[in-house]
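Justification of computing resources. Each target in the renewal requires a structure prediction run like the one illustrated here; the chain below, 439 residues long, is used simply to show the kind of job we budget for.
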Amino acid sequence: MKKTPIPYDVVKQKIEESGLQKVGKASIREIVKLVSDIEAATGLKYVRMEMGVPGLEPSKIGIEAEIKALNSGVAQFYPIIDGIPPLKKEISRFVKNFINIDVDEKSCIPTVGSMQGGMAAFLVANRCNAKKDTVLFIDPGFPVQKQQLKVLGMKHETFDVYKFRGEKLEEKLESYLKKGNISTILYSNPNNPSWICFSEQELEIIGRLANKYDVIVIEDLAYFAMDFRKDLSVPGKPPYQVTVANYTDNWIMLISSSKAFSYAGQRIGSMVISDKLYRRKYPDLKNFFASDEFGRAMVYGAIYALSSGTTHSAQYGLAAMLKAANDGDFNFLEAVKVYGERAHIMKKLFTENGFKIVYDMDEDEPLADGFYFTISYPGLSGEDLIEELIYHGISAISLGITGSERTEGLRACVSQTHESQFDDLEYRLKKFSENNPIK
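Resulting structure tokens:
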């Protein structure tokens, strides 16, 4: 029996009790449950890197605005389905100030987190043309979005972008689009889990091909402006969050409040639709919705059916934070820069103990330090690496469940690892490398 930082026999017992045939193939939530059970049984705290949850306190600006709204009685009223006017105004201003894209307030819609925004987008965008019924994921990506499509009974295709960066992206992307079945392209930028960030060249390729093949691009901005290599925090001044919206009108942005604003618990995000797409009519939408106009089908068809709007008080909270950011009174990125600082230190600890960074470059530029990084260990598959790390008090998830072809790797999230755990992490990694000598 190996000597491991977490008692070997307890971990083995809990793995057996979990019913998991292979820990390395477990979903994010299954890993969360397993690790929580081991922590409860041993009283020992893990270095938890498996789940991408915010680890910082939210701004008091949002909380105080919500309290004020609740005290004014908004809880007794249904919210307007497409969003309260103050929030729609501030979303529009935010997109102009931090992305440099003009969009009408009408086209700015609050959603119950970006998760709901994605679900609603699939419901409408994948039904605009009966001949186009498939979503294309530029992976690696967020596994739950594929789960949403499975629940909806919709199709998807996918490819790992790692080998197709820069100009190589065009031929690869077009090989899917020319088949004529792709309705929608989806990617995250910065990327979950690899933290790659698309360049202007790559976004131009995506936008140009979206125009050529008339497909809708869903830009998942869950980690808005968190490419910490540039200062994207000053409203109305470059550099801005890069976007495909500079190259096509066929776009939807999903802007999360969970990470950049540390507001995950209130389940509120923003769906922003290009004005041209919002107004565009697709006759095939009438097979599912009362209107053939894209925006009306989205609001009064999909979002109405999914949730009948977004929590009333949370809309006031987000409106207040966006207003403060738009006015230059609240640097929302200052607090979250700590994620990049943690990643820099944690990557160093891993590589000093024999690990490799899987996704390490943005074309010819070193990858940014951010919310996630990816790791592998010589001689171990991704599935075996997860299980071995569990015995050493460290948790992560397999890249294999994210659509990545780099199945030897794992995704590590820095948000739940406090600086006070770095010594513990270093000790556990040293024990890991002792127990798994590189041959």
